[in-house]
Please model this.
Amino acid sequence: MTDQEAAALGAEALAEVQSGHVVGLGTGQAATAFIHALGRAVKSGLSVTGVPTSEASATLARQLGIPLIDEPLALDVAVDGADEVDPRLDLVKGYGGALVREKIVAAAARRFIVLVGPEKLVPTLGGRGRLPVEVVPFALPFCRRRLTELGHAPTVRAKDGSTFVTDNGNLILDAAVGAIPDPAALDATLRAIPGVVGTGLFVGMAHAVMVWDGGRARTLTRTG
Model:
């Protein structure tokens, strides 16, 4: 998805927001486009409060004049992107490194809306070959060994030549995966490893996925 397409999709997502809402602000390309659209709406008189999922999103929101709170207790709507979306609207997220805060905000929201380009739609999760897993630094060697034993040999994420550190002060292991036939089971297995804070599997969380495709937005909704 180009930046221009992301901007158009972010503007479309504003229909989910009403004055007085508490809004979860995601992280990444699509979420950034939505924050820009929301900032313009706030400047035009829309009254909302944002809950950011990363320091980067918080900084952008402040620059755009969006009032913020740091209490993800109860939100009206959260808007974010995704790295993979399957037909059940289960997701892989976390390539941007904010997966734990994103999951907390999504879980606290009455509606969780995901914005993607068509390239993010996959028949089965795992097609991109890696699953982010956030771990506390003390547990890094143990978690690497346990993931390898489970058949998901991980790589410690790095950025700009240094080990990547999340806004929570943790590290990310990018676990090698193939097709994931049962995302809920894999998520439970990985979260049971002591030291794992969370995984990039978002199962049964998205209420709707907005896809920018062919010059327009189409909305997929979860069934069941």
Summary: The chain has a mean pLDDT of 96. The domain at 3-121+203-221 is CATH 3.40.50.1360 (Rossmann fold). The first helix runs from residue 3 to 13.
